[in-house]
From TrEMBL:
Gene3D superfamilies: 3.30.300.20, P-loop containing nucleotide triphosphate hydrolases. It comes from Acetobacter garciniae. Residues 175-198 are annotated as: Disordered. GO terms for biological process: ribosome biogenesis. This is GTPase Der. CDD domains: EngA1, EngA2. GTP 2 binds at residues 208-215, 255-259, 320-323. SUPFAM superfamilies: P-loop containing nucleoside triphosphate hydrolases. The gene is der. Belongs to the TRAFAC class TrmE-Era-EngA-EngB-Septin-like GTPase superfamily. EngA (Der) GTPase family. PANTHER family: GTPASE DER.
Length: 468
């Protein structure tokens, strides 16, 4: 696995991969960051939003940005918006990797954008990708005609020439600033990774159905047009992570592709997008479930909520387009009633209402996310927990199973993230589900654990006189 960078990504030099569609930019991005982070397919134009990662280049970390393909298009069209996003990334680059397809040769689009890049007054390294074998290397020489210097011939897919490319990148990076003691800056990896809040930003995944306003929400939080948005559903294909800081700390927020019903997912590319969304949810600490408040709760919204619960993540319900709702009281009640009936584990989930398009009340979201993360990380002292447990047993005795009453002895919390409890007792493993729900509801109400999954496990004690 790629090592953790010793410095915040904002302090790292920026290297941007640019070029027309389908020249292998995302494949090269994955190769340099050391893992399959960007979606790759034979279909041109898979990448729509900028994707960032951290790459270790000859002992030095860089912030690597994969961009959408550069294409001539009207500014208000989808491809025009994609190009504007790519150009915005190029303006902050310390080094541009301009990539062409050596097998296809130099195209008019390559020539046009090479001229445009020359005018940006940024360091540029010309890459001739897909230059496998002798023929590919010979074809790469045609790239001299672009006037961007000597091309680096490589094959990102097969790894050929990547070592030479890393040397070339390292030589062109800006001088490295002296940093303070790296041991102080390095993250602490001691302790139980599963049960301790890790160092670094709070990881958040924005999930929901297509066209619910997830990308618009992220743009509003960032205060810039970072994600491609528009009326077309399904614009976001890959899971895009960005870092955001407020007065209380950092967030790593991932915008994911919209999740549709399985029956409607038939294209390979869309299946890859869904897989990336689910993977982002698994890596998150808090999931922000975005709903279109004008449409209410759809069955697919409930399926996504069940997925969040199954993965054990904290959840914040984000009701977008709230400014377009006429009867807000009735709408909120209908949504929460539907969730409470269909998803008992989501009872008490925090709800934030806003308009991502206008920015109204969006500022309430991040504090709600942080509060949900605190509940998700909650720990209940063992003594307090068992005093509660005794009172619950007195109020409603454990049921009879096969004519014998279960003897539940004590309870302990074994982990947080999400809160997980284990009950010990004679034949505790036979505890009925309805009694478990009674205890879970009591845990949630007594110890203020709203809106997070609560795991309740049982451990029976062996009877030494039972037949083996």
């Amino acid at each position: 696995m790629r090592p953790v960078p010793p410095l915040p990504t904002a302090d790292l030099p920026v290297v941007v991969i640019a070029g027309r569609p389908n020249v292998g930019k995302s494949t090269l991005f994955n190769r340099l960051v050391g893992r399959r982070q960007a979606l790759v397919a034979d279909t041109p134009g898979v990448t729509r939003d900028r994707k960032e990662g951290v790459a270790l280049i000859r002992g030095r970390y860089v912030r690597l940005i994969d961009t959408a393909g550069l294409e001539e298009a009207a500014p208000d069209s989808l491809f025009g918006r994609m190009r504007a996003s790519s150009e915005s990334a190029l303006h902050e680059a310390d080094l541009i990797l301009f990539c062409i397809d050596a097998r296809s040769g130099i195209t008019p689009a390559d020539e046009h954008f090479a001229q445009w890049i020359r005018r940006q007054n940024r360091p540029v390294l010309l890459l001739a990708n897909k230059a496998e074998g002798r023929q590919g290397t010979a074809s790469a020489l045609e790239a001299y005609a672009l006037g961007l210097g000597e091309p680096v011939a490589l094959s990102a897919e097969h790894g050929e020439g990547v070592t030479d490319l890393m040397w070339e990148i390292a030589e062109r990076l800006p001088p490295e600033h002296a940093s303070e003691d790296s041991a102080e800056n390095a993250p602490d990896t001691d302790g139980d990774e599963e049960d301790t809040r890790p160092a670094g930003p709070l990881r958040v995944a924005i999930v929901g159905r297509p066209n619910a306003g997830k990308s618009t929400l992220l743009n509003t939080l960032l205060g810039e047009e970072r994600m491609i948005t528009g009326p077309e559903p399904g614009l976001t294909r890959d899971s895009i992570a960005v870092t955001l800081r407020d007065e209380d700390g950092e967030f790593e927020i991932v915008d994911t592709a919209g999740l549709r019903k399985k029956a409607r997912i038939d294209e390979t590319l869309e299946k890859m997008s869904v897989s990336a969304s689910i993977e982002a949810l698994k890596m998150a600490e808090v999931a922000v479930l975005v709903l279109d408040a004008t449409l209410g709760v759809h069955e697919q919204d409930l399926q996504i909520a069940r997925l969040i619960e199954r993965e054990g993540r904290a959840c914040v319900l984000a009701l977008n387009k709230w400014d377009a709702v006429e009867d807000r009281t009735a709408t909120r009640k209908a949504i929460l009633d539907r969730l409470s009936i269909s998803l008992a584990q989501m009872r008490g989930v925090p709800v934030v209402t806003f308009s991502a398009l206008t920015g109204s009340a969006v500022h309430k979201l991040l504090p709600a996310v942080r509060e949900a993360a605190e509940v998700w990380n909650a720990r209940v002292p063992t003594g307090e927990l068992n005093r509660w447990f005794e009172s619950m047993l007195e109020r409603h005795q454990p049921p009879l199973v096969n004519g014998k009453r279960l003897k539940l002895r004590y309870i302990t919390q074994v982990k947080s993230r999400p809160p997980t409890f284990v009950i010990f007792g004679t034949r505790a493993e036979q505890l009925p589900e309805d009694y478990k729900r009674y205890l879970v509801n009591g845990l949630r109400d007594t110890f203020d654990l709203p809106g997070v999954p609560i795991r309740l496990q049982t451990r029976g004690t062996k009877n030494p006189y039972a037949e083996s």
